[in-house]
Amino acid sequence: MNEFSHKITAWYKQNHRSLPWRETADPYAIWLSEVILQQTRVDQGLAYYQRFVSQWPDVLSLSQASEQEVLKLWQGLGYYSRARNLLTTAKMIVNNFDGAFPADYKQLLSLKGVGKYTAAAVGSIAFGLPNAVVDGNVMRVLSRVFGVQEAIDASDGIKKIETLANTLLDKENPGLHNQALMEFGALHCVPASPDCMSCIFNHMCIANQKGLVGQLPFKQKKITLRVRYLNYFICTYKQGEDCFVALKIRTSGDIWKGLYDFPLIETSEEVEIEFLINNNAFLDWTNNRNFTLSKVSDLQKHQLTHQTLFARFFHLRFHEPIAVDTKNGISLVCENSMNDYPFPRLIDRYLQNIDLINC
Ligand code: SF4
User: Which residues lie closer than 8 Å to 205 by C-beta, 6 or more apart?
Assistant: First the structure.
């Protein structure tokens, strides 16, 4: 074992967090945790992980779930393609691999949503396969300790880090090594102001010696943020004791595919209600039906990685039945069954704080 691996695994044994997917070699549990934890903090992901294993304790039970059920349990985690890929992969495991995760790196890579990172994590931790994981934490630690100055979002930099990670990997115990490196990046060599004084690598860390800790890892691309204004119509219609709400399923080509929101007119800037109700899409859909505008929300800001969303909710109380528009994915749902539908966090948060029936 090389000095780097020796140090990091010793550190891990002393310092790692106790988490349920660390107490098992079950590839289902490890895969599930790895998918949930991509782009998600451990404290937030843990509750989702527990809900998933409690509802679907193995890959067979998950494979029999509906997409709506999986998206509903995933609600609030974001990056919803991960949830859809979970279900596709569960079905692939059952149909193509007799219900058992393959103990082979290339076959793991053939699964939907399983890239190099997840294949290496599941393969090394569950099966002892000698493939190094490279995620944001690993990139940060390796680029600092070994002074990698190539951009980690460009192919040369990525290749250099991957080669380094595979050279350093302890092939005898790759699962332990990989988990140690990721945990060290998550807990000690953190993005801002890491504690270099007490670090196990401070004598050999090039970034520390050359005063480059704040500059590494180096990235060349700047994220450009798209700003969108989502003008939502919450359309309700009361029939006897029942209150119906028009929901719209989101389709491909945009954020939140497979989740539900409301009929909407998107604009590039803030607009007044008069502009919206004279919009052709709105006129077509409402088709001269009578309604009362009963409430207008404040502007709600919602930040995604590459988009800033501003949403406003217009509550329209219809006095005659609302049109169902299957071509545009609009259906009428009884207010009592709203909980069965998966919503983006922006919508869910808004719904938590209003009384639909009396709005
Ligand atoms: S010395 Fe500082 S920058 Fe280098 S590995 Fe340790 S915490 Fe990270």
Answer: 144, 145, 196, 199
CATH number of 3-210: 1.10.340.30
Segments of the chain assigned E as strands:
226-239, 242-249, 260-261, 264-267, 291-296, 300-303, 307-318, 330-334
Mean per-residue pLDDT, 97-102: 97
CB of 202 sitting under 6 A from ligand 1: yes
Report the C-alpha gap between 164 and 185 in whole angstroms.
16
For residues 325 and 31, the model is more confident at: 31
- Mean pLDDT, the chain, whole residue set: 93
Residue 359 binned pLDDT confidence (cut-offs 50, 70, 90)? low
pLDDT score, position 222: 75
Task: Verify whether ligand 1 is closer than 6 Å to residue 209 (CB atom).
Answer: no
Query: Nearest to residue 235, comparing CAs of 309, 333, 328, 301?
Result: 333
Superfamily of domain 226-352: Nucleoside Triphosphate Pyrophosphohydrolase (3.90.79.10)
**Domain spans of the chain?**
3-210, 226-352
The helices-and-strands tally (H runs, E runs) of the chain is 15, 8
- Dihedral sign (CA 66, 260, 113, 46): negative
| Nearest residue to 144 via CA among 225, 194, 208, 99 | 208
Mean pLDDT of 286-293: 85
Nearest ligand 1 atom to the CA of 202 is: 1
| More confident: 271 or 126 | 126
Q: Which residue has the CA at smallest separation from atom 2 of ligand 1?
A: 196
Q: Which two tokens stand for residue 246?
A: 């028009």
Q: Which two tokens stand for residue 149?
A: 């100055």
> What would the DSSP string read from start to end of 43-111?
HHHHHHHHHHHHH--SHHHHHTS-HHHHHHHHTTS--THHHHHHHHHHHHHHHHSTTS--SSHHHHHTS
Active site residue 34: yes
Note the pLDDT tens digit of each residue in 173-217. 999 999 999 999 999 999 999 999 999 999 999 999 999 999 999
